[in-house]
Fold DUF4142 domain-containing protein.
Amino acid sequence: MKRVSLFALLLSGAWALSSCGDGHSTTTKDSTGTEVTDAKAVADSSNRVNKPVDKESADFAVKVADVGLTEVAMGKLAQEKATDQRVKDFGGMMISDHTKAGDELKAIADRKGITIPTTPSPEHQSAMEKLNDKKGLDWDKAYIDHMIDGHKATVDDLDKASKNLEDPDLKAFATNTLPVIKMHLDSAQAIKEYLKNVKKHK
């Protein structure tokens, strides 16, 4: 629970000047009912006002950045909490690959003046909080299930973006990133099958 509280604190500090005055709320409440700033909503709001690129391209950049930050954060959790080495190794891959993709996306966003989040959205923090309530093999299985669901959605988003985005740089980013995310999904699905036969951890 302390980890999630730290995320909330970071959100509050990093986005203290968050209101863009466009009528969209950039705050939400965490699991304790405390109001926190939603970094993803702040980025969306800023891009609606400044319009650095077309809306679809900006929305894609914000969403993928949010997902990537979450994958890195959850990968770090896996390094700490996973009890199976394959799950730990998968978490390490998430940290490495999504950090690299996040850096590439940030470089594109910086060049184009797109605002992207720098901390996971409250929605994703909530998912991490739920994971924190589990232990041992249950944690490993829940984490991998979450990775499968998340990567399926990301594969779909990247596939559509690689075909339909107007911005050429973000379209190329989607095209180049898609095979990596498909590989992550395949790995997660293989680990899920493996975990079905694991009775307990040492």
Remarks:
- Residues 158 and 174 are 5 Å apart (CA to CA).
- The two ends are 25 Å apart (CA to CA).
- The beta strands are 27-29, 35-37.
